[in-house]
Amino acid sequence: MIEADPVSLEIMWARLVTVVEEMWHTIVRTAFSLIVSEAQDFATDLLDPDGESLAHSPRAMPVFNLTVPIAVKALLKKYPAETLKPGDVLITNDPWLCAGHLFDIAVVTPVFRDGRVVALTATVGHVGDIGGTKDSLRAREIYDEGFQIPPMKLYRAGEPNEDLLTLLHTNVRKADEVLGDLHSFVAANQLGADRLLAFMNDYGMHDLRALAAVVQDRSEGAMRDAIRALPDGVYESEVFNNPLGTKLRYPVKITVADDTIEVDFAGAPPQQPQGGLNCTYTYTAAHAVYPLKCILSPQIRSNAGCYRPFTVLAPQGSILNCDKPVAVNLRTRTGWYIAPNIFRALADAAPNQVQAATGLPHAVNIYGRDTAGNVYADHFFMGGGQGACARTDGKSALLYPTSASNTSIELMETRAPVLVMEKNFVTDTGGPGRQRGGLGVRTVLRKLHDDGLPTLFSIYPEGVGIANDGLFGGLHGGGVYGVVRDLDGSIVQDVGTGELVSLDRTDRLVEVQLAGGSGYGDPGGRAPAALADDVADGYVSPEAARTAYRQSAAATLAAD
Description:
- By secondary structure, this protein is of the alpha+beta class.
- The chain is globular and about 70 Å long.
- The chain has three domains: 6-207, no CATH class; 228-350, no CATH class; 355-526, no CATH class.
- Helix content is 29%, strand content 23%.
- Helix 1 runs antiparallel to helix 5, helix 3 packs across helix 7 and helix 4 (162-171) packs across helix 5 (175-203).
- It has helices at residues 6-30, 34-37, 62-78, 162-171, 175-203, 209-228, 281-296, 332-335, 338-345, 409-415, 528-537, 542-547, 553-558; strands spanning 42-47, 53-56, 89-92, 104-113, 116-126, 152-156, 159-160, 233-241, 248-257, 260-264, 310-313, 362-369, 375-382, 418-425, 441-447, 455-459, 481-486, 491-494, 499-503, 508-513.
- The protein has a seven-stranded antiparallel sheet with strand order 2-1-5-4-3-6-7, with helices on both faces. A five-stranded antiparallel sheet has the order 14-15-20-17-18, with helices on one face.
- The chain starts with 5 loop residues before the first helix and ends with a helix.
């Protein structure tokens, strides 16, 4: 019946997305931490009774959307739906069951109608602190990294689990903020449950399974059609990184066969004994299928059906499928290379759908105590330059491949005693190409007060010493570095690929530069008018216009 009325189906489907969008807005308005309320490092989802994704907010963190079903199924395995009661709320941050590191906490609420579970609402968010070391590059085990929450009940029949909340409160630095975020997640889930029940009442539904099957099957069908449009074959690529100063190689093999795609990471480096660089399989798989969804069926609302045609393989015990209890906190420094590797592999098969490598984001964790003894611990998110694609230049200061936002400087300065001296685009850091990569960003900050108290800055810039070439003749973006300077501009400390910097005076400046995105196509083919605009805006220097783009500055300036 549902499938026979496409107009009503579209209305119902859109309304389900509206439910999770309202959940998303609730968290933005009520969360305590900057990383959730401002950087929006969270996701909201609606799932069917089996834990399969039915709808999620389009603005939600992509990797969370794809790991939520795994977390929900793990929770349902321990707490089967028939044993749950109204008012129960489930929780976990197990990296091997959830989103890959302990900061990301999943909160799941069963939705009851006529005495049985008909759906689940879920939120996963990166809380402001989870305990553990502040020097994540020195971590060797998950036990170093913070407070672990196995699948548990956060609420039992409407009553909070005070034992768990007390333990969490005791083991994190900004306890009220962390618990405030969790209560925000609980409130959003309950609002989503209420809105879903109102939706079911409006349509006289007693179960969501029929609707779920239709929307998931339609999404699956659209994805399989998109895969069939690709030429069958085996496509390979490789990328490199060096987060600890030693270059690591990541090969990938993508097999397109009729309406299926297999992504195989055979040959990935072994799991690393230090640094929290390891990815759990759930995190790797999410980062592998997300770029495929983006390039193959961007117009289809995402749900479980979109991902059924994909298979992801990664060697057990590798950096992309690590074993407990290795450290995983900085897994983004590995996982963020997956998307550009997949795009590069599929460049010949889908040249108009892929994008060049992006200058990776960075979050400076700022931590200390003020003169009153109060703890401050916040994440200062900043984005680099996005890679260019066939149709457009890359955007600048974008946190891709996440969907997080740059942290507001003004709000950061109200939360921590730091002063941001500079945050600028850097000329000539966008990778030259027919389409130019987005520009890299330089940020300079220091302590606000000469109080003699230490302020810790985690400076772990990703991509130091790595140049990711663009696609189809495009060139790589500008370089990456992190340094401490004195007021004269002299470097007093080069952090290399990462250090936890401690400053107790205001005459030392932390400076971080993130890479620009790589270019797409031959730089000599860039439209003179576009290059003229770049030179006029300060994005490209006249010298680079002559050399990298092989066009005269006079010609570009006269183009408009």
